[in-house]
Each structure stands twice: as C-alpha cells, then as structure tokens.
Amino acid sequence: MELRLQKWLSMAGVASRRKAEEMILDGRVRVNGAVVTELGAKANPAHDVLEVDGKTVETTQQKVYIMLHKPEGVVTTVTDPFGRSTVMDLVPSDVRLFPVGRLDQDTSGLLLMTNDGEWAQKLTHPKHETKKTYVAVVKGVPSNENLRKLRNGIVIEGKKTAPAQVRLYEKIPVKGEKMQNAKLMITIHEGRNRQVRNMCEAIGHKVISLKRVVIGGLELGNLAKGKWRHLTPKEVRSCVK
C-alpha cells in the first residue's frame, strides 16, 4: 500500500507530519535514491527505500512515550545551532525521539517526547483542542476584571485567544515590599507562541515564572526537575481524545 511520504515518516517515528513536510520541502528526503520535494508524493514501504539525510528509514520500530520535567534554560529542539542544552541531552535513548510541541527556554514543566508521529499529531493539532494547564507566578495581583478578560479571551497580535480557565491560586508576599505577587492556574487548548506569557502581559502582569503541569489527562505530579520516565499504556491513551 502506498503512503504519503510525510505519513510514512511519521509512522516510522522520524518526526511529526508537520516536521516531515518541512524535511521534504528542504530536499532532505529520498525515495529509491531520488530526492523528492513534492508533499503529495507517495511510496510503498513494502518495496521502496526511504531515506532522510542519507539514512534509511526503518519501517518497524517500537513506540516510545516519555514524560520529561523540562528545566528552565533548556531549549525544546532536537539540535541547536547555538550550542545550547536541548531536551535531547536529558533523555538518552536508543531510538530517535522528538519533543511533542514545545516549551520556551524560560518555561519549565511537563514535556512529552516520542517516536510516534501519529500520536504527536493528535496531541498538537488544533482540532483536537488538547488542554494544557500552567502555573504562572505573575508580578502583582490581577483584579477580578482582568481575570475575567483572561477567561473570556484577550486580543494578542490582532487575534483573540480562546476562552481559558483561570484561577487565582495564591497571593504571595514580596519580601521587603508592601506589594504581593500572584500564582495563577491557567488552562488553555491553543498552542500559540508564548501564549500564557503574552496573555498575562496583555493585562499588565509580567510572568515571573511559568511551569506546565498538565497535558490532556496527564499530570506532571512529583517528577523531579530534569528527570524523565516512560508513560504507561493508560497514560498514553489519556493524552488524546
């Protein structure tokens, strides 16, 4: 049976479909020795040879699902041209893994890694509206009106965010000052770049620290920062609808 190349690459755990499409357009993919740059191109895993960057793609591979507690200062990429520490440095593996979505360099918390492109696609595609919960410590304490704005959606870069679940979890005294900061629990299902930070700054409360604690039905729990573990089959299913 013929498959689109991006689907084959995804099923083989090389990358998500979106990333696989980028690889094809960049001329990194060959079928039977010939470079293919058409996104609609197909091939048959039964008798065709698929290569990425000169390496043959194996058609069968054990699926791996990992939860990582990403520390601040680590970038969510497979490689980094600036030599910064990446999440790949924290998770040694005999199979080729990639991060599912991303957390910005200054954000810590729950990050999933896998070689299952189909599963990653379900988690990250906007139509599935996978919920993600963050703990944000912000400067100052937002008013009820500003919390309402976050819940109802707020315009960022000309586009309104989807409704969010927002709860003022705790007021934190600032040592040596009369002011307080706030800890917020924020749940969103969108994946816009630096969305939670931008939402908070849009109401005048800069984020001091940000940590993701939930993706879908999966909680970070007490996994220590910088540590990782394999997901159970039940947890793998809980992440997607």
Helix content: 10-25%
- Number of distinct beta strands: 17
Tally of individual domains: 3
Major sheet description: 9 strands, mixed
Overall form: elongated
Evaluate the radius of gyration. Answer: 20 Å
**Tell me, what is the CATH class of the largest domain?**
Alpha Beta
CATH superfamily of the largest domain: Alpha-L RNA-binding motif
Overall structural class, as computed from helix and strand content, comes to alpha+beta
Poorly predicted regions: none
* CATH architecture group name of the largest domain: 2-Layer Sandwich
Proportion of β residues? 25-35%
What is this structure, in a nutshell?
By secondary structure, this protein is of the alpha+beta class.
